[in-house]
Amino acid sequence: MESLTEHRRVSGPVVYGFLRLLRVSAARQGALMASLAEYCRSHELLLSGVFTERSAATGSAAFTGLLDVLALPDTYGVVAPAASHLGTKPIAGERQKRIETAGARLLLVRGLRGPRPSGHGPTSPPSAGRRRGSLGPAPALDAET
Q1: What is the DSSP letter of 19?
Q2: pLDDT tens digits, one per residue of 36-93
């Protein structure tokens, strides 16, 4: 008898991560990579790589590389910890348009939040007690400009 789908590894839609890391510690970088991997695991997405921008310059090799892989067949989208990882507001807005023009979706681990009633904590439980999945960190596609 064949296993249920839930008990077999199934490839989800292919996504690529994008991180903007300016003057960030190794521990913070590791935590951000882990958050992308956990988000993809919990949403059944296949994180195929992570592009890392390490410069505030407008012309970024990391973002250009991201746009290149978005042209590949079967690429679903881009996952980032927050919209701020796309850059400052004007740059992020333009980059979001370019991602959408490429036919990809932008998925944010922490989406845009509205104000919460006072006295309410985070919208999800802390991750300290969560069991880690078997998905290891995605290969880092580091491009320094």
Answers
A1: E
A2: 999 999 999 999 999 999 987 767 899 999 999 999 999 999 999 999 999 999 999 9
**Order of strands across the sheet with 140-143?**
105-108, 75-80, 14-20, 46-53, 140-143
CB of 25 within 8 A of CB of 87?
A: no
Phi–psi pair at 36, nearest 5 degrees = -65, -45
Name the 3-class secondary structure at 71. coil
User: Using CA atoms, how far apart are residues 47 and 18, in angstroms rounded to an integer?
Assistant: 11
Tokens read off for 60: 């970024």
Global pTM?
Answer: 0.70
DSSP notation for 113-137: -PPPPTT---SS--GGGPPP-S--P
